[in-house]
Amino acid sequence: MFSAIRKMLREWKGLQAFKRTPREERKLVFYSEGRGYWTYFDPIYKALQANHRTPVLYVTSAENDPLLEKPLPGMRSFYIGEGSMRTLFFATLDADVLLMTMPDLQSFHIKRSPFSVHYTYLHHSIVSTHMIYRAAAFDHFDSILCVGPHHVTETRAREKLLELPPKALIEHGYGRLDTILESGRQGPHERHGDPVQILVAPTWGENGLIERHGLDVIRPLIDAGLKVVLRPHPRTRKLAPDKLDVIVAHYRNEPRFRLDEDSDATTSLLDSDIMLSDWSGAALEFSLGLERPVIFADVPRKVLNSEYPAIGIEPIEVQAREHLGVVVSTDELAELGHIACAMAADSKKWQTALKDIRQRWIYNSGQSGDTAAAYLVSLIK
Q1: pLDDT tens per residue, range 127-156
Q2: Which of 133, 192, 255, 359 fits as disulfide partner to 137, beta carbons 3.0 to 4.6 Å?
Q3: Using one digit for the tens of pLDDT, what is the confidence trace for 38-53?
Q4: What is the C-alpha to C-alpha distance for residues 381 and 376, in angstroms, rounded to an integer?
Q5: Highest CATH level, class, for 187-361
Q6: Which sequence spans correspond to the domains of the chain?
Q7: Could you tell me which residues come within 8 angstroms of residue 94 by beta carbon, excluding any fewer than 6 positions away?
Q8: Of 301, 217, 202, which is closest to residue 260 (Cα–Cα)?
Q9: Cα dihedral sign for 317, 318, 319, 325?
Q10: Which residues have CB under 8 Å from 179's CB, separation 6+?
């Protein structure tokens, strides 16, 4: 009980500290729902500092966010938790611009404030807007930083269908992808006899690959001599921990198996030759950022909006599968090891195709931060 009281007191102090910030200094606010989201803000923050010297007020719901203890130059940070103080923060916000990665503004308890705040949405996935998100997820933002042409087409189609006011749609790009590109690690690894590494990174939910198939996913990969890194979605750990515990216990003494639950996961991404996924947006980051192929297990689609066909556009995560790798039926999971080895042997061919797809599907590759920073500065009063 006392720890809960201390936590709420800390959140209250964070909210009051934000409110004490003079209104003329509340120009640009970043809201982060968890410590793993900074990777999406980072390129924009860097461009704001390098090109515009624009200060940022960083508000986070993560109690262990490292930017609370060590805010970056040009930043002041505030902790508000994810309960009543966060609700109060949004309800009373008075600032020029709020940039956030959390959808569903106005749909539930997180509302627009009565003040004249410009709400900008920053996509934290390449996937489409209309199938894995709730129907009204983006309806109440003033502007959206779009990853590629698909986001513009989908958003305009929904606005037309429902006669919604048009939002400002910015041809932005994807900062997470830019960070991967900066690594310079594109293309196949030179293994020199070491085993091929496959990153298993599915989405979460009752139809998720791990939730539905568990050990049957990992076993054929280990049996084929591959090195396997399992990176579950954080929601799988929360909602189906028993599925993960069974796998980890089974391979406790297997040196070619590793569980990765690091919030960043960049190392596992960069070091892997192939990814095995289902409907996760991470598959698009891996293939388009590192120019390496993906095996897509054909579990049922992840659908939060059952009316997604109404706009008449196939989601990009559906279109992408046949371009970015191969689709494998769940009846063929026993063949995953052989399929992965064959793809690794043909990795040069995949690299050429994936580089071309990135250039067509993603705005401003390598420069998205500059684009977003310039737009946000233009909104400041």
Answers
A1: 999 999 999 999 999 999 999 999 999 999
A2: 133
A3: 999 999 999 999 999 9
A4: 11
A5: alpha beta
A6: 14-174+364-379, 187-361
A7: 23, 26, 113, 115, 117
A8: 202
A9: positive
A10: 39, 42, 43, 266
